[in-house]
Structures are given as C-alpha cells and as structure tokens.
Amino acid sequence: MIDDLETISISGRPFKECPKCGTNLKFSFSSNPHIFKTLKGKMRTTQAFYDCKNNHRFMIPNPYVLPYKRFGIDVYAEVLYRRFNKKRTQEEIKLDLWEDYKLEISEDSISRIINFFLQLKGGEIDPSDIKEMQKNGYIILSIDGIKPLKGNTSLYIVRDVLTSTTLKADFFTSAENNVLISFLEPLKLQLEQLGLPVKGIISDKEKALVQSIDEVFKGVPHQLCHTHFLDNVTEPAAKLDMHMATQIKKELGKNNYMKETKKKINSRKSKERFRR
C-alpha cells in the first residue's frame, strides 16, 4: 500500500551561505512526495528547499532517484550492468529483474533507461537545460557513484545542483583515480566551452572520487553530502533493528498463546462476515 510507505526527507542546507549573494539560507518548504520503484520496493521521498532573503532557492539532489523518473538510481545501475556487462537483451533484463527482485518493469522502460544513459555517456545535454544553466552564470556539481546489488561495477552520475540537470554518466568496472579523472576532465572542458564555471561540488566520501575531484577541479570548494553521511551513520543501527525484529517474530511464532489468539481473531472475523 502507498499509504504504508515511509517518507524519506532529503534535507540539510546544501550550502552555509547563498552562493549567489552570500546571505544565509533558511528552510522554505518541502516538495510534494516523489514515489518511485527501487530494487527493494516502492519508495517515497520529499525534498527540502532553502531560500535566502533575495529569493535564491537551493536543494540537495535526491541520491535515490533522478528528477521526474519512475525508477530509482539503483534500478538504472542494475539495468545498465546487465545490458553492458552481462550482454543481456531487454527482454532478458525484464525477466531477470522480476525473478531476482520481483520488480515489474516494461521493455520500453528498460529501453528508455539505456538510451538516457547513452546520451549522457556521449556528453549530450539538452539545449534548453544549457540555457537554464547559463542564466545562473555558473553551476554546482553533484557527483554520485552507485553500485548495482550484483556485480562489481559502478554507475557514476554528475548533476547540476541549481537546475537538477543530469550532465554526464558512465559505467566503470574500476573506480581508480585515472579512470575517474578521464571521466571528469572532458566534462570540465565541455562546461568551460559553454561558459559555465564550476563554483562548488557535492559528493560522498569515496576516497578515489574525492582525490579525482581535487585534481580535476583544483581550488573549487568541495562539500560532502549530508544524506550519504546520515545513511552511513544509521546503517549499523538499521541492521541491528532488522535483526531484533526478526528475532521477536521468531519468539512470538513459538508462543502457543499467540497462535491461539490469532486463530480466535480470524474465527471472529469469519463469523462477522457470515452475519453480514
């Protein structure tokens, strides 16, 4: 049920001060929920927006899904891994995802994911997005590396924080410095040719990625993503909580009193239906 979904808020100021005018940023509002499919089931997120006194607005990019997309980034990573590493057809990928994750996805959706990736890999940016970024006069990059649940490759996605435009993506079997540098340098050159200086960067704390960013974008302010940090902090607690819930269910399952109570409740419900 959709109503049973937990809503995850993507919050936290992306910057201490407005990069346009230097004034403080304050929370303004949260977006409408974005519901999408992941490999672990449906997910619902909202995004917090922050304004300065001059009405410049910012948010942290959603690490779980791209704007307006129906499938999470983990699904993109899995589809691309199976297509380009395992050489699976679209029909086979559809069957694989149902068998492994019970994920319903059409061949058309798989085709769109693959085509979207190929456009980004080739450095194609929509002209309307370029105009929107040029209005701001600069960009702030968000760089994410996402691993599929199976396999040892990583999907890297680069976005502009100010406009939520996806700028580049590629798949790597090795995330070493030289590989990531060769991924980022052409993008830097492309942005320079478009007259879009990079004023800031947000990423997780992956060692090779941090080093590559520092080398390619020397002197550009670099901030670690709050959402990734909180995910890493809470992961051990979440695992312990899941383990505890499993143990409680096992103990309750052994309890005859609980079994008898459940039988009585079901019996009472059946009788009430019969009376109606």
Q: Describe the sheet with the most strands.
A: 5 strands, mixed
What count of helical segments does DSSP give? Answer: 8
- Overall morphology: globular
What is the CATH architecture assignment of the domain at 64-234?
A: 2-Layer Sandwich
Order of helices and strands: EEEEEHHHHEEEHEHEHH
Which class do the helix and strand fractions yield? Answer: alpha/beta
Strand content: 15-25%
Mean pLDDT figure: 84
CATH topology of the domain at 64-234: Nucleotidyltransferase, domain 5
Distance between the termini: 26 Å
Total strand segments: 10
- Determine Rg (CA atoms, Å): 23 Å
Quickly name the level 1 CATH class of the domain at 64-234: Alpha Beta
Runs in which pLDDT lies below 50 for 5 or more consecutive residues are: none
In helices, the fraction of residues equals: 40-55%
